Amino acid sequence: MDNINEYILRALEPDDLDILYDTENDKSLWKYSNTSSPFSKHSLKKFIENSHLDIVEHKQIRLVLSDMKNTAFGFIDLFKYDMINRRAGVGIIIFEKYRSKGLGSKSLILIEDYVAKHIPIHQLYANISTENIESIKLFEKHGYLKVGNKKDWIFYNNKYFNELLYQKILGK
User: Fold this and answer.
1) How far apart (Å, rounded) are the C-alpha atoms in residues 104 and 73?
2) Is-above-0.90 flag for pTM?
3) For the chain, which has fewer Cβ within 10 Å, the N-terminal or C-terminal residue?
4) How many helices (H) and strands (E) does the chain have?
5) CA distance 71 to 68
C-alpha cells in the first residue's frame, strides 16, 4: 500500500450500499459524525442515488477510497461546501481492517488533488474530537493547523467532549 498512484477516489456505486450501511450504523463512530440514530438501507440507497449531484447543489460529496481492483478502503467526505467563501469541511473514515497503513494520508493527498482540479476551494477544515489522536496526527502531518478548541461541543453517551478545529489554506 505504498504508491499513491495505486489508489483513486471514486463515486459511490449501488454496490457500496452494504458497506455504507455498516459504516453509518457503527455506533462507535457516531461520536465523530454527530449521528444519534441508525440509518435505513432505504435512506442510504437514496443517498447513493443522489450522490451524482454537483457539490454546489448538494453542498457535500462522498467519495470512496479504492484501489484499481475496486477494493474499498474507506470514505472521504467534503461537507458544508461554501461556494462564496470557497471552503469545505473534510472527513475521513478508513475501514477498521485497513487502518494504520497510511491510507488516511493517501485520502488527504487525493482529495486535495481532486479539489485543486475540480472544485474552487481555498481552504479545507476538519472538526476532530480531542480524543481522536490518530486523526489529529494525520491532519497535522498534512499541514492542517489547529485554529480552535470548541469546549463541550459534542454531547455523546451522556458526556461532553471537546472538538478541535483544524484548517488548511490550499495552494500555499
Assistant:
1) 10
2) no
3) C
4) 6, 7
5) 7
